[in-house]
Structures are given as C-alpha cells and as structure tokens.
Write a structure and sequence with these properties.
Its EC number is 3.1.1.61. Residues 156-348 form the CheB-type methylesterase domain. It catalyses: [protein]-L-glutamate 5-O-methyl ester + H2O = L-glutamyl-[protein] + methanol + H(+). With 355 residues, the protein is of the alpha/beta class. It folds into two domains: 3-135, Response regulator (Rossmann fold); 162-353, 3-Layer(aba) Sandwich (Rossmann fold). 36% of the residues lie in helices and 22% in strands. It contains eleven helices and 16 strands. The protein has helices spanning 19-30, 46-51, 67-80, 96-104, 120-135, 171-181, 197-210, 265-272, 292-301, 318-324, 334-353, and strands at 3-4, 7-8, 10-15, 35-41, 58-62, 85-89, 109-112, 162-167, 189-193, 214-217, 228-231, 237-244, 247-254, 279-283, 304-308, 330-332. The strands form four sheets. The chain has a seven-stranded parallel sheet with strand order 10-11-9-8-14-15-16, sandwiched between helices. A five-stranded parallel sheet has the order 4-3-5-6-7, with helices on both faces. It has a two-stranded antiparallel sheet with strand order 1-2. The longest helix has 20 residues, at 334-353.
C-alpha cells in the first residue's frame, strides 16, 4: 500500500452513469493526497469492474433515476467483499427512501451533491469523509449475545428513567439493531442522529413501520411516554430534556454560531445531566466527538452511560471520544447495546424499589 506523510493512500472507486458527477468526485480525490482513484465505471459494468478486479478501500455509488441498480450493487459488494460504500445523492426527496434503504443495508455514509461543488470547505469535508469510510472495518452482522445476557423484564410502579442516544456515521444500521432489542413497552427514548431533515423523516417513517414502538420526530413540549421513540428533528434547533409535572418532555432551544452540530448530542445529554440517575445515555458509531462532553456530564451526575465498542463501530469517533474522557460506564459490542440498556432500566427500577 502506498503511503504519504499523512498515512497510507486509500483506493477509491466511483460508480455513476453521469460524467459530470464522476468529474466532481474525481476533482475531490485529486486534492486529497491520501485518496487515489482506482477505477471509475458505470452501473452496468460495475459488477465486473469491482468484483473481478482489485479491491478498492471504498466505493462511491451515485444514486440515479434507477436506484434499485445501486441497491443491488451494494448488496453484492456487502455479500462478496464487505467493501465500504458511500452514497452520493441529490438534496431533494426523490431518493430519500432508496438512500435510507441503502444505509440500512450497510452503506457507511451518504454525501450530498452540493449547490456549489467548487466550495473548498465542502470539498475538504467530503474528502475527509471518504477517507474515513475507506478506513472503516466492516464485519458481518451477528445475533450472538454475551453469555448469560437476557432481555430483562421492565418493572412497573416506579418513576421510569429516560433513554438518550446519539449517533452519526453508521447510525442507521446501529440504531435499527439497538431499537429492535429494546423492550417494546420500555421507557421513552430520545435520539439525535446526524442526518438532513428529509432523510431523517424517511428513516423515522421506516422505523415506525418496522418496530412495535411508536416512532416519530419529537415535537416541542410533548410528553415522552412508555413505548415511544422520538428523534430530534433537523429543524435548526437543539432538542433538550426537561421534566414537567413529573413527565419527561422535549423542548427546543436555539443554536449558537459556535455549534458544530444542530441538533447536538452534547446539548441533549447536557440538558439531562441535572436528572442524575434517571438518565441512561448511549453513544453509538459516528465521526467526530459530538456527545462526549455531554455524556461526561451525565456520568459525573450519576446517570448510566453505555458506549459502542471499537470493533463493532463503523467509525469509532464519538464513542472513542467519550471513552477517552472516562464518560462511559460500560462499552459493549453493538449486538449487546440493546440488552445493556434493558439491564440498566431494570437496575434503575430495582434501586428505586429499595428506597
């Protein structure tokens, strides 16, 4: 593998039928010394070009007017070579369902064709995300659980805790797995997933069809009840937690110019720290460190904190930042995160029963 002063060169393949979009991705790769264009091809020739030839470190697949072709190619790449796939899509709603389906099937990230492809900040961000995707380690999913772990029964009659989660790159498949393992009538969950508004709406609608819980975008001042899963909307406001008349409630707050993310996992977690042991904070796969500082506040306040481990994370950025701060009580593989949450809920209720 070739190396630069910054590390090994990652090999990238492009699959697209539109020459101008291929040229745009090609221009981004030229400006990043750690990325090299290995092959570019169209959808029709991609299986032979990618599956029979040398293995790229990541494949950029541009969703076109026939997205099923891209989904079929993604399935082949995942089954035969476990190659990280990054989607490239437009900013409209026409590909929302296909994009969420692809992320659910294992695509590691999604980049959006910018209004101004010459914007140097946009090009730098996309190049960095392609490099991160090329470094990611994909593993075949496992349903094996830790020995002795089972889904605890949720006790009634006590003040229930609240589950908070944060995720970014790789979060679609991670959240699908975790939410599937939660008790259907367990405590409410409020989640920040970094994703543009139109795509987040499609993701939430898909989860609501798949899960027994009531899944929706959070609305301001609405109570969070048992059996509900709420996602912080990408509406330019932060989602925070408060308790009104004994009920968990979501409230919105304004973003600051210095905020890197909105909604922010840090802001969500920090707002919950004042409720001490009633909080269960969970941080999943994602690029960057959003959520680490807020989880540290929850941890110091006596809340329970759970992090996804490195081996099962598509990008071990956010969980690593929280772990390095000493904010994570328990770090577990993705396959056990849901069970760890259920166990934390049962322990919380048991402790309340002793008061």
């Amino acid at each position: 593998m070739l190396k630069t002063p910054f590390g090994p060169v990652r090999q990238i393949a492009i699959v697209d039928d539109a020459p101008h979009l291929r040229a745009w991705v090609r221009a981004i790769l030229r400006e990043h010394p750690q990325l090299n264009l290995l092959v570019e091809t169209n959808h029709a020739e991609a299986p032979q070009a990618l599956l029979a030839g040398g293995r790229p470190d990541a494949v950029v697949v541009v969703l076109d007017d026939a997205p099923q072709r891209s989904l079929n190619l993604l399935r082949q790449l995942m089954v035969q070579k476990l190659t990280p796939v990054v989607l490239c899509v437009g900013s409209g709603r026409e590909h929302c369902k296909a994009t969420i389906a692809a992320l659910s099937k294992g695509a590691v990230d999604c980049i959006f064709c910018p209004v101004d492809p010459r914007d140097p900040i946009v090009k730098q961000d996309i190049g960095h995300r392609l490099w991160i995707a090329a470094k990611s380690q994909l593993r075949r999913p496992s349903r094996t659980d830790l020995p002795g772990m089972s889904k605890p029964q949720i006790q009634d009659g006590f003040s229930c805790p609240l589950i908070l989660m944060g995720a970014s790159t790789g979060g679609v498949t991670a959240l699908e797995r975790v939410l599937t393992d939660l008790h259907p009538q367990g405590p409410a969950a409020l989640i920040v997933q970094h994703m543009p508004a139109t795509y987040l709406t499609s993701f939430v609608e898909m989860l609501n069809r798949q899960l027994p819980q009531d899944v929706a975008l959070a609305t301001e001042n609405s109570p969070l009840e048992h059996g509900q899963i709420r996602f912080a909307p990408s509406n330019g406001l932060h989602s925070e937690i408060c308790r009104i008349k004994g009920k968990w409630t979501c409230r919105f707050s304004n973003a600051r110019e210095t905020d890197l993310h909105c909604p922010s996992v840090d802001r969500l977690f920090a707002s919950a720290a004042v409720y001490h042991s009633d909080m269960i904070a969970v941080i999943l796969t994602g690029l960057g460190r959003d959520g680490a500082n807020g989880m540290h506040q929850v941890h110091l306040a006596g809340g329970r904190t759970i992090g996804q481990d490195e081996a099962s994370s598509v990008v071990y950025g956010m969980p690593r930042a929280a772990w390095d701060l000493g904010a994570v009580d328990r770090q577990v593989p993705l396959r056990n995160v849901g069970y760890a949450i259920n166990l934390a809920v049962a322990q919380h209720n048991e402790n309340q029963g002793r008061i």
